[in-house]
Design brief:
The chain is mainly beta. The N terminus and C terminus are likely disordered. The chain has two helices and 34 strands.
Length: 420
């Protein structure tokens, strides 16, 4: 049997091996502690539990990975031009220039969603769990600014900040997919309402009105108004312009009454308030990601294509196919496959940032070059595991009884050889 397994983007080590740390070594030179070229890592969080320690150990193995297989809209630039995302129970800040990471370790279970503050370098992350928590934390200091609990069950699947940064809206994984509006600084609930019987994928504040928002999901789109201590909603009116589809993403434009949603059939639905005006065929397959630009939009879908559009989706201005030949020489590896499904997309600092279902993060220059920043890889030669083995069947040629270091690939080979 295999003593290790990869499950949903995570590595699980056998019980007889105590992982102390997994580090990314330089691409040249031999392994060993203290060698130059290892990324700088720093961590922050509250008190640790045994569950937390397990998660932390795994996170170091995945320190460059990104959770895209079941999440979306969870990848952003900070104002300091760093990249923020999450994997397992860890919030990750990646510095592109220094190739270094910092970790927020305040969560005690897997993070499912992430939102970034519109003004400051603050991030909100929501996790899975019986009584799931939402953490608002500073990307520079890695300190938790607010901890929100007690309003959701099973998990928090979607988050967004209001345009003034004062409110935060969250969606739960309970049967009604409850929506909660928070005064996050005070840690107080402002309003709550049942969302929808089926899963809600995205909640988005109207950037022009801090009391309006929209939710989209499985056969679902609703337009919400926050009034006093309550939330009221209106369903989308389709008329003869289109039919109800599963909506995967949503974005507002520069006109305050206009809203755009990406559907599972590859169409963009164009709305004025809650009235559907028309639909535009944009992608071959589901549109998972959409982001508003100063003059237009950028979209990404299951077809692995990034598209730049004008401000009313009348013309597609440019397309980028995410393929191996398009990668720049500065990329950190190779794509797992051509045209991977795109799960997150955003714009900042003159670049388009894209996250794929395969756990890759790419940066696209508008002039064309595509750089692979982060890559998921089963056997990266540059990953090294540091720890202590506690099983006599493992060969001492690869591990010493004390704290040891060896290539991850050698460790996996050794365990498979001893336990076929």
């Amino acid at each position: 049997m295999d003593l290790w397994q990869r499950h949903q983007g995570q590595f699980w080590f056998p019980a007889h091996f105590c992982v102390l740390e997994v580090v990314l070594a330089p691409t040249h030179g031999c392994c060993g502690r203290g060698e130059s070229g290892f990324p700088t890592t720093s961590t922050s969080g509250g008190g640790q539990t045994s569950r937390r320690q397990e998660k932390t150990s795994l996170s170091f193995l995945q320190q460059l990975l990104y959770r895209g297989y079941d999440c979306r809209n969870n990848l952003f630039y900070t104002q300091a031009a760093e990249v923020v995302y999450h994997v397992a129970a860890v919030g990750v800040i990646y510095n592109r220039q220094q190739h270094s990471q910092r970790f927020y370790l305040g969560h005690d279970d897997d993070i499912l969603c992430l939102a970034i503050h519109p003004v400051k370098d603050y991030v909100a992350t929501g996790q899975v769990g019986r009584d799931p928590s939402i953490h608002i934390w500073d990307t520079q200091t890695l300190k938790c600014l607010s901890l929100l609990k007690g309003q959701h069950q099973r998990g928090v699947c979607a988050l967004d900040f209001s345009s003034d940064g004062k409110s935060l809206v969250s969606v739960g994984l309970d049967d009604q997919h409850t929506i909660v509006v928070w005064d996050w600084k005070k840690g107080e609930r402002q309003a709550t309402s049942r969302g929808h019987k089926d899963k809600i994928f995205v909640v988005k504040y109207n950037p022009h009105h801090v009391d309006k928002l929209v939710t989209v999901g499985i056969k679902h789109i609703k337009f919400w108004q926050h009034t006093g201590g309550g939330l009221t909603s209106k369903r989308g009116i389709f008329g003869n312009m289109g039919k109800l589809e599963t909506m995967m993403c949503v974005s507002y434009g520069q006109m305050e009454d206009m809203m755009f949603s990406g559907a599972a059939n590859g169409d963009v639905y164009i709305w004025k308030r809650n009235l559907l005006l028309k639909t535009i065929k944009a992608h071959d397959g589901p549109i998972f990601a959409m982001h508003a630009l100063d003059k237009g939009f950028v979209t990404g879908g299951k077809d692995g294509i990034v598209e730049l559009w004008d401000d009313i989706f009348e013309r597609c201005l440019k397309t980028y196919a995410i393929k191996r030949p398009a990668l720049s020489p500065g990329s950190k590896g190779l794509l797992l496959e051509d045209n991977p499904s795109l799960r997150a997309i955003t714009l900042g600092h003159g670049h388009i940032l894209v996250g794929t279902k395969n756990g890759e993060i790419l940066e696209i220059d508008k002039s064309g070059p595509i750089t692979l920043l982060v890559q998921e890889n089963l056997f990266p030669r540059s990953f090294f595991v540091i720890g202590t083995y506690m099983d006599p069947l493992l060969p001492t040629a690869n591990f010493s009884p004390a704290q040891s270091i060896c290539p991850l690939k050698d460790y996996l080979t050794a365990t498979k050889r001893c336990y076929p």
